[in-house]
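ESCALATION

Customer reports they have been waiting on this structure for their group meeting. Please prioritize. Original submission:
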Amino acid sequence: MEGLLRTREEEGRLSGILNGVDDAIWSPAHDALLSHPYARETLVNKAHNKRQLQISMGLSVGEKIPVFAIVSRLTHQKGLDLVLEAVPELLEHGAQLVVLGAGDADLQEWFLAAAAEYPGQVGVLIGYHEAFSHRIIGGADVIMVPSRFEPCGLTQLYGLKYGTLPLVRHTGGFADTVADCSLENLADGLATGFSFSDCNVGALSRAIRRVFVLWSRPTLWRYVQRQAMAMDFSWRVAAQAYRALYQRL
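Update from on-call: job pushed to the front of the queue and completed.
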């Protein structure tokens, strides 16, 4: 229906409203599922959650080790085959990878094989675990969502709220919610994460390398975290947009 919808958009008859995040459930300052709740002003406490995550997933413990995370349905649509191709480079830079999800049998097997091949660096939990997803997003440094397409998405919104910088493909709702850490966006105080456009492992790898560049500058990394946590994608904003739409109609 894309052709029809684009025509309607050109006529001014199409409206898009982003998903909302429930602050009562997803709030790092009040999340009872975290060992150490934290806020923009107390980001130092995020390190305690990182340590707990590393221990629970059997990873080497270290605050200076960047932890990349995936919390997702394991499907081709989510672009996770690209992540699998990028795993060796990711680990060569000294990072760790945490995966939580279930889905396609081949992707499950490949991620489990990666965990077996790289003990202490890759931790994988197959299944759906709401409580543990909070602990992953609260403890990780980067949340990866390299989807081939995504109408809006919630995972990157959780990442922003928890100061876990999203690494996304520039498509759909990701383009509307994540501002890339380009030099221009950093200078303007707009950067909140990392994005890439082309759907291939080369583009993902280049984005990963930019993550490590920012990670090597802790003060700037913390600045971007605070920028991300200042974004408001709550249901209050979405509800106001719905109400304004109804009133306009």
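Sent to customer with the following note: The chain has one domain: 19-236.
Escalation resolved.
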